[in-house]
Amino acid sequence: MSIRTLIRGGLVITASDELHADVLIEDGRVAALAAHGTAAAETWTADRTIDASGKYVIPGGVDAHTHMELPFGGTAASDTFETGTRAAAWGGTTTIVDFAVQTPGHALREGLDTWYDKADGKCAVDYAFHMILSDVNERTLKEMDHLVGEGVTSFKLFMAYPGVFYSDDGQILRAMQRAAGNGGLIMMHAENGIAIDVLVEQALARGETDPRHHGEVRKVLLEAEATHRAIQLARVAGSPLYVVHVSAEEAVAELAAARDKGLPVFGETCPQYLFLSTDNLEEPDFQGAKYVCSTPLRPREHQAALWRGLRTNDLQVVSTDHCPFCFRGQKELGRGDFSKIPNGLPGVENRMDLLHQAVLDGHISRRRWIEIACATPARMFGLYPQKGTIAPGSDADIVLYDPHAEQVISAETHHMNVDYSAYEGKRITGRVDTVLSRGELVIDRREFTGRAGHGAFIHRSTCQYL
User: How many CA atoms lie within 13 A of 11 on its CB side?
Assistant: First the structure.
């Protein structure tokens, strides 16, 4: 039975506006907004009224880059779709876009169906899928058309991880050409994996086995080179390009140069590159393994270029690349050989809070916070205006956010299924108070009231920036 909900007295913040407004919700969608205290708002009645005084009323976050239950390096990401989407809700994210994986030699369809099965009936918030292409051939190129038709409209390729996900330039070009014709968006992990493997082999031969060497062999220049090459291949194919987890100043410069030419090239970065650095990789007693991810953490001086890219819109999206592995029993697989440390960090619960702290620190504005975390990822991946904003007709994915609450990020209090926090002990201001997903309370004043199976698969349209 539908419950009519009224959110009163908060500051509604979207990518375009800030307004003290009341929000009326019916049948899981936003029915109307009206300035608080106006005659129109005063006439509204509801089954449930939520007092948002002193709080921000913001769209639920859209995390367009997560890896729940991802098999990697002989183990698997520790968050299931159930635990991971519950943690997302706690962090104010109400939609994730996860990556279904094609196994080499198998059909895209087979990989996608596996991910449907993993997520179906498990998710606390809504979800969608990208498709990882591990084996580009005539059959899988044709399958791309069918996937676009069923709402899986973006395809990730890897210039890294030879023997696992890697595609060569010819395969990448073919996939880009197909996407140029079917409206799909190519997502690229841009690192020169062939060269990196040589450097890994050489480092290990020298006895350089600690986690910090993971960052040292995955050179900034090899991210920049691969970013440049991906852009040129996309130009040849007439295809748009979205570069994931950009970590280095030189890679941002490649994106900026392409965008200055008017090319449909887009970039994403992640909180770990904005708030962490190689200092973390160098933590003693193998603690640096907690921070092994690819692209790797960079020296702190790269952070200024990433923040600048977010302000100038040379980077458009902040996603998490949430791919958690426990320190005990998973990250420890790489003791004595950094190349065996599973690549990935937990973060789906921390993104909205960290970006709010960035507002307070003067890096971005409040509306830019919502733009890079909610509206732009929704537009980029064909979810807007169903997701990413608060407007009549949009899904009632709404977060009441307390901008004054103080918290200390810790594994002791987070809800991700992982035994450490990448931001352990970090003091921040701002915290999620209440979360609605399609009008249903998932977090009610810091109490989880959601359920596995509430989250629905979302059929996406194509990129709305093209």
Answer: 11
- What secondary structure does DSSP assign to 393-432, as a single string? TSB--EEEEEEEEEEE--TTT--SSSS--TTTT-EEEEEE
CB neighbours of 260 closer than 8 A, spacing ≥ 6?
none
Confidence of residue 410 (pLDDT cuts 50, 70, 90): very high
* Structure confidence at residue 115 as a pLDDT band (50, 70, 90): very high
The pair of three-digit structure tokens given for residue 405, joined into one six-digit string: 């609450």
Please give the order of strands across the beta sheet that includes 185-189.
61-66, 93-101, 126-132, 154-158, 185-189, 241-243, 265-269, 317-318
- Strands, E, within 166-264: which ranges? 185-189, 241-243
Structure confidence at residue 2 (pLDDT): 74
Q: DSSP state, 125?
A: S
Tokens at 243, concatenated: 């570069």
Could you tell me whether strands 48-51 and 75-76 are parallel, antiparallel, or unpaired per DSSP bridges? unpaired
Per-residue burial over 173-193, b if 16 or more Cβ lie within 10 Å, else e, is bbbbbbbbebbbbbbbbbbbb
Mean pLDDT on 419-433: 98
Instruction: Residue 343: count other Cβ atoms within 10 Å of its Cβ.
Output: 22
Over residues 350-385, the pLDDT tens digits come to 999 999 999 999 999 999 999 999 999 999 999 999
The CA distance from 247 to 274, in Å, is: 8
Nearest CA to 23 among 52, 61, 55? Answer: 52
Please check whether residue 271 is in contact with residue 351, taking contact to mean a CB–CB distance below 8 angstroms: yes
